[in-house]
TrEMBL record:
Protein name: DoxX-like family protein
UniProt keyword Membrane, yes or no: yes
Keyword Transmembrane helix: yes
Membrane topology, record value: Multi-pass membrane protein
Taxonomic placement: Bacteria, Pseudomonadati, Bacteroidota, Flavobacteriia, Flavobacteriales
Length: 119
């Protein structure tokens, strides 16, 4: 349970601030342009990252179904991000964080699922 708590905290903080950056950071504006994605796609990505971060926290403390759904959603989002990185031919160092977070969120989703079936 402590591992899940640490991971949820780490992932939630990471996605919350990265998601906010999608709305306010000039660096993120440039990155999404480099990705070949629109302003609307940048904002939708930021929205889902902030929503996912909040869902993980809410799920950990109040409702594991929400946590499970948020972790799965963030895993899907990061898998799509990894696909974009591959499409634009980013190198391993540039692509790895999205792949890592996709797997990490999948692991967290599994942990939430285990909580749900044991209840």
């Amino acid at each position: 349970m402590i591992v899940l708590h640490i991971l949820v905290l780490f992932i939630s903080v990471s996605f919350f601030f990265y998601g906010l950056g999608c709305f306010y950071s000039p660096t993120m504006y440039k990155e999404f342009k480099r990705f070949g994605l629109s302003k609307g796609q940048r904002k939708i990505t930021g929205f889902f990252q902030v929503l996912g971060a909040c869902g993980l926290s809410y799920g950990f403390y109040l409702n594991p179904i929400i946590g499970f759904s948020a972790a799965l959603g963030l895993s899907l989002l990061m898998s799509l991000g990894f696909g974009v990185r591959l499409k634009i031919k980013d190198n391993f160092v540039q692509s790895f964080p999205s792949f890592f977070f996709a797997l990490l969120n999948l692991f967290v989703a599994y942990q939430f699922y285990a909580l749900l079936i044991s209840a």
